[in-house]
Write a structure and sequence with these properties.
This protein has about 200 residues and is mostly helical. The chain has one domain: Four Helix Bundle (Hemerythrin (Met), subunit A) (Up-down Bundle), CATH 1.20.120.450. About 45% of the residues lie in helices and about 5% in strands. A two-stranded antiparallel ribbon has the order 1-2. Strand 1 and strand 2 form a beta hairpin. Helix 4 packs across helix 5 and helix 5 runs parallel beside helix 6. The radius of gyration is 16 Å and the shape is globular. The N and C termini lie far apart (about 50 Å). The mean pLDDT is about 90.
Length: about 200
């Protein structure tokens, strides 16, 4: 039986965080060592479009030309807010979770694509929050769904498939919250804080 999840709470949280990003935050580092806040915002623009298309079985979006940071133009906060709402709505359709789909040029089970989309919202929401000094909250259902996915991605069955998704896992206490265990399994230190010059 197909398992579905509500992406709405994680999308709403990320939307709130994006609104709180100030222009002078854009060049800050993030827990994703290869991304500045600007790059992370560009990544969010791309992933929200790609996974909305995946829910609707519309195929891949063309990879944006140039760097991720170059996507952060115009009223990008409003653009992301609209795209996040569209993403959550697209995955409310039970048909989105059935069969196979294409996400970023990779064909995969639609149910897995939905889980990856939710995990992206949770992890990058946390990334953005800690990089910009904003509070982060994650509803229990989203945290547990993300933990389920990151646990699967760290299982021997996935093997090299984990590469490109996450960096090396960070050990966290076994009695940590589902969110902190998810962060650790994704290669993030739950205690990461921004270091300002």
């Amino acid at each position: 039986m197909t398992t579905t999840f509500n992406l709405g709470p994680a999308a709403d949280q990320l939307s709130t965080l994006v609104k709180g990003v100030e222009d002078d935050h854009l060049d800050r580092a993030t827990p994703c060592t290869e991304y500045t806040v600007r790059d992370l915002v560009g990544h969010i623009i791309g992933l929200t479009a790609a996974f909305a298309n995946a829910a609707r079985k519309q195929g891949s979006t063309d990879a944006p030309a140039g760097s991720l940071g170059e996507l952060v133009t115009g009223d990008w906060r409003a653009r992301i807010e609209t795209q996040l709402a569209d993403l959550a709505q697209a995955w409310r359709d039970p048909a989105a979770w059935e069969g196979t789909t294409d996400a970023g040029g990779v064909e995969l089970p639609a149910e897995l694509a939905g889980k990856i989309a939710l995990n992206e919202l949770v992890l990058h929401g946390w990334d953005l929050a800690v990089a910009t000094g904003q509070p982060f909250s994650c509803d229990e259902a989203s945290a547990r769904a993300s933990l389920e996915f990151t646990t699967l991605a760290n299982s021997p069955e996935w093997g090299a498939g984990r590469e490109g998704l996450f960096t090396e896992a960070v050990e966290v206490p076994e009695d940590s919250s589902p969110l902190h265990r998810t962060l650790g399994l994704s290669g993030r230190d739950p205690g990461w804080t921004i270091t300002l010059p």
